[in-house]
Each structure stands twice: as C-alpha cells, then as structure tokens.
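Page 42, continued from yesterday. The earlier attempt failed because a stray header line got pasted into the input along with the sequence. Redoing it now with the clean sequence only.
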Amino acid sequence: MEADSMADKSSEAQGADSSQADFEVTTDRLEQLMKSMEVLLSDVEELRSHCSHHATELVQAAVELKQQQDELKQSYLDLSQEMQVIMDSMDDLFSTKSAFETKEKQAQKLNRQL
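This time it went through. Structure tokens are written below.
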C-alpha cells in the first residue's frame, strides 16, 4: 500500500507539474497574442492616419478639379460668345461686300448707258 500511496503522490506531483507547465505555456501564448494584438492595433492606427491624410489630399484635389472645371466652363462660354460675335461680324462683312458689289455693278451699267 505504501508503494501505491507513493505512486499516487508521484502521479499527483506530475499532474501538478504538468498543469503548471500547461499554465505557463498558456500564459506565454496569451502574452504573445497580446503583443501581437498591440502591434496590429498600432498598425491599424498608422494605416488610419495614413488613409485620413490621403483622404484629405483627395478632397482637396477634388475641390481643385471642380474649380478648374468651372473655370473651363466659363472659358468655353466666353469663347462661344466671342465666336458668335465674330460670326455675326463676318455675316455683316459679307452682306456689306455683296451690297457693295451690287452697287458697283449698277454703277458700271449706268456708266455704259451714258
């Protein structure tokens, strides 16, 4: 019986040592996991800051593009109006030329008749 009692105590001691070792392994793994999570959290914060900075730059670029678009629209409208004025002037010049040529032909006819 004494041998059984010693075997039980030895078995209990091994079980306690095994539980202690398992606890230490679990504790180490949890600490490693916590460190990994802290690194990941830090990386996420860095990425968020980076993305926020880029988002700000993109918003500024979009505002600038909108301003350029508005300026180009206004420039197009101004040029269209100028082109219309030029076309109207050309029409007036051609009408004047045509009227002048008609008057010149009439004058030549009158000169021939005289």
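Notes: The chain is about 100% helix and 0% strand.
Reminder to self: strip header lines before submitting.
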